[in-house]
Amino acid sequence: MIWSDECYVYLGDDHGRIYITQSTDEEYNEECLVPTFKQSSVHVMIWGCIMKGKKGPLVVLNYPGGKGSRMNSKRYQEQVLDSVLHQFYTRMNRYWPGTLFQQDGAPSHWSKLTQAWFWAASIPLIDHPPSSPNLNPIELVWHELKKNLRALPHPPTTVEQLIDAVQDAWEELWIVGVDKHINKMQERVEAVLAAKGGHTRF
Fold first, then answer.
1. Contacts of 55 (CB under 8 A, 6+ apart)
2. Which of 26, 33, 39, 110 is 20 to 30 A distant from 80 in Cα terms?
3. 8 A C-beta contact, residue 50 and residue 56
């Protein structure tokens, strides 16, 4: 199984996850709220994939400015599918025949154009129903990558430096850490089924 996802990384992401403990009558108490601020304009969107024992390629996605600059099927095919995924999948499927590929339910992932590409490339997809619990183990890998970026002694200050830092952080992620999250998939799925789609400790 190859797990994939996009991730947004921006300058100033220095807090990680925030947890707040409050009683039922303190929901709007100022001392129990965290203010939000506008995110930095210096940011990158990345795509990556993982599988057991292997990190796949990391792509810094290129969006033009202005209207219609979001990811679409054409950009997804050009920047991800044609440029890196096809070669990586072919190599992995040679060693592990029948390898499946996972992607979330983004419109660019499930358009007719994209589905035709996967059919032509003979890459089988795992079902990913809309509004499903996000159990993708790469989400936890993104968390580790961002934690490493926040720990840099000299944080990047430009887009170019941020791109270099993200690529270095990806290369430095240990495979044992990636496998740790993949190995817990069965346990996580069983917990979600037991909770009937509700909250779990994961």
1. 48, 170, 173, 175, 178
2. 39
3. yes
Per-residue pLDDT of 6-23, as tens digits, reads 999 987 655 545 444 555
Listed as own residue / partner, the contacts of 193-201 with beta carbons closer than 8 Å and 24 or more positions apart are: 197/133
Q: Is-contact 4 48, C-beta < 8 A? A: yes
Dig out the tokens for 46 from the structure: 């990345």
How far, in Å, are 64, 114, 132, 155, 175 from residue 54 at the CA level?
31, 25, 26, 27, 6
One-letter amino acid at 102 equals Q
Q: How many Å apart are CA 142 and CA 155, to the nearest integer?
A: 17
Alpha-helical regions (H) of the chain = 73-76, 86-95, 107-110, 112-121, 138-150, 159-172, 175-183, 185-194
Residue 49: strand pairing partners: 4
Residue 97 tokens read as: 């025949």
Neighbours of 147 (CB within 10 A): 12
Domains of the chain: 2-11+38-194 (3.30.420.10)
Of the candidates 44, 32, 48, 39, the one whose C-alpha atom is nearest the C-alpha of residue 14 is: 39
